[in-house]
Design a protein that fits this description.
Rossmann fold, five-stranded parallel β-sheet, 26% helix, 27% strand, globular
């Protein structure tokens, strides 16, 4: 069975979650990579082959790939013979796959934590209602589209990697009422993108607006910096760092909540994390109800000790 995987890339560099999606795709069938935009560089094609892609189907539609209606047409054309389409569950991709489903009649599940074949149908697992329920969903249509959350599959190269064949896809782009007026690159912050980070260290009202220790701890652990809505509302840190139902939903292997009480809004964006560690002065803070490990104390006392012990452990 052919399983199409929409590849996320920037500047010719493939995102880590795309390799996770290719790894999952190998458990469902034969992966084929779908590449939108410009022609992929040779090293990117080699990487896709290393992770099991038999083909790299290129829809060279340039900046039109930024327009969901045209991107959806390209994805539908490139995956027309595939029984399953996997994408990374981002805001843009959710709109794209909704359009693909409307045009093809496929069943769609987004924000999935996994997928497998059961009796010839795709079944997914995911958390719903602010991560308070775990559910399984079976897609009964002949074609299935699944949006996978980052960090839910361990990326691994194929046991027998091959050379991926590059195949051009002709896409009859539709006329739309939207057009791209200009593209301006926004400088990216150093470090791992929040949604993709395997480790997230978040700070809330308890930081008092000082994120120095939060950033240092995140850098030490190779992770990203997150924040509560209170912190972003106060202007202490930009909205891009907000973890929550109206911010970014994260599923890292390790989530460290520092000075965050744990309101429902925040828990809904991080409760599905692998291991949750909370640091808070209030022993009755709701965040402790969902934490695997809790420390009652000031983050300004606890984090420096943690940093020191980690550094000592690495040096020994």
């Amino acid at each position: 069975m052919s399983v199409a995987v929409l590849i996320e890339h920037h500047g010719g560099q493939i995102s880590r979650p795309s390799f996770e999606a290719l790894t999952l795709a190998r458990t469902l069938g034969t992966p084929v990579a779908v590449w939108l935009g410009e022609e992929p560089p040779a090293d990117a094609v080699a990487q896709l082959g290393e992770y099991g892609a038999a083909e790299v189907r290129v829809a060279a539609i340039g900046d039109d790939a930024r327009l969901p209606a045209k991107a959806a047409t390209a994805v539908a054309a490139a995956s027309a013979d595939s029984s399953v389409l996997l994408v990374i569950s981002t805001f843009v991709n959710k709109e794209i796959v909704t359009r693909v489903a409307m045009s093809t009649g496929a069943g769609v599940v987004v924000d999935a934590a996994g997928a497998e074949l059961v009796d010839g149908r795709v079944e997914t697992t995911q958390t719903v209602f602010a991560a308070t329920w775990d559910v399984r969903t079976r897609i009964e249509t002949d074609r299935a589209i699944v949006g996978i959350r980052p960090n839910t599959t361990q990326a691994a190269p194929a046991p027998t990697a091959g050379d991926a064949t590059v195949v051009g896809v002709d896409v009859p782009l539709p006329e739309t009422r939207e057009r791209l007026a200009s593209v301006e690159a926004v400088p990216e912050e150093d470090g791992v993108p929040l949604a993709e980070a395997p480790v997230v260290v978040s700070g809330g009202r308890g930081t008092g607006g000082d994120y120095t220790l939060i950033r240092e701890f995140a850098d030490l652990l190779g992770g990203a910096v997150g924040a509560s809505r209170d912190a972003t509302d106060e202007g202490w840190i930009s909205h891009e760092h907000m973890v929550g139902q109206t911010g970014t939903t994260v599923t890292p292997a390790l989530y460290v909540a520092c000075g965050i009480s744990g309101a429902v809004h925040h828990r809904g964006g991080m409760q599905a994390s692998g291991t949750i560690v909370a640091i808070n002065l209030d022993p009755d803070a709701p965040i402790f109800e969902i934490s695997d490990f809790g420390v009652v104390g000031s983050l300004f006392d606890v984090i420096p000790q943690a940093i020191e012990r980690i550094k000592q452990s690495r040096e020994s």
